[in-house]
Amino acid sequence: MDAAEFWSLKRTTAPKKLFEQIVPNLPVPLPPVTVPLPVNVHVLGPGGGVWASQLVDGVNVVTPGPADNAICQVALHKKHLREIVGGALRDRGVTVMSRLGRAGQLPNLSRVPLDPARAVSVQKLTGSVALNVRDRELGDTYRYVFTFGNAAPDYDTATTTVTIDADEAVEWIVNKVHPKQLLKARGVRIEGDLSLPVKALQALLDGV
Fold first, then answer.
1. DSSP code of 16?
2. Distance between CA 21 and CA 38 in Å, rounded?
3. Are 147 and 153 in contact (CB under 8 A)?
4. Which of 18, 25, 88, 158 sits 20 to 30 Å CA-CA off 194?
5. How many alpha carbons fall within 13 Å on the CB side of residue 57?
6. pLDDT at 188
7. pTM (predicted TM-score)
8. Phi, psi of 3 (to 5 degrees)
9. Which of 157, 1, 138 is nearest to 80 (CA)?
């Protein structure tokens, strides 16, 4: 898969095809490390399912079904997954990359300061963090929930909710803004346990 294919995936791409055929071959550069445990991704709604995703030597290795021992559970509705794959959030990426003079390029995540030895400590946290991404243009909100450890995904009643703007989020990724700074950015709203996302970042990332 090249950059052109990456930016032109269809909204109708089925979750099974996405996780089992596309994700392992995504051309987005990832940190060249191996994380000892996977993350379980729960796609809710008809046509969804569960997949275990693990970073191995900088490659995203995906297996069908949940892993018994996972760092966390990520839960999202199929309709919100579509927005990342080939919908509004993907289109935001295309627009922002073009505005920044990087049209057609791929985001480079290889320098994300991921510390594999510390990443597994996220599993010991209690609770969940919901990331609500606001789409000002369409008036929609896309929800992605991270439940730590092997507890059941807590999609509806997360411990902490972080709300961000879609366009700003894409710009942060493209400009490689450190995640810790995102929590302090203007326009970011945090409700619930304010310390939980900070603890997760401190456990997950080196140098936070």
1. H
2. 18
3. yes
4. 88
5. 0
6. 84
7. 0.89
8. -60, -40
9. 138
- What's the whole-number average pLDDT of the chain? 87
Q: Are 163 and 86 in contact (CB under 8 A)?
A: no
* DSSP per-residue string spanning 72-122: EEEEEEHHHHHHHHHSHHHHHHHHHHHHTT-TT-----TTS-B-HHHHGGG
**Cα–Cα dist 72/65, whole Å:** 14
Which of the pair, 25 or 182, is modelled with greater confidence? 25
Helix (H, G, I), strand (E, B) or coil at 169: helix
What are the C-alpha distances in Å from 89 to residues 40, 56, 57, 183?
22, 26, 28, 20
CA distances from 76 to 50, 59, 84, 147 (A): 11, 22, 11, 11
Report DSSP state, residue 65: B
pLDDT at position 53 is 96
Nearest to 201 by CA among 110, 125, 111: 125
Contact 200, 122 (CB under 8 A): yes
d(CA 153, CA 168): 27
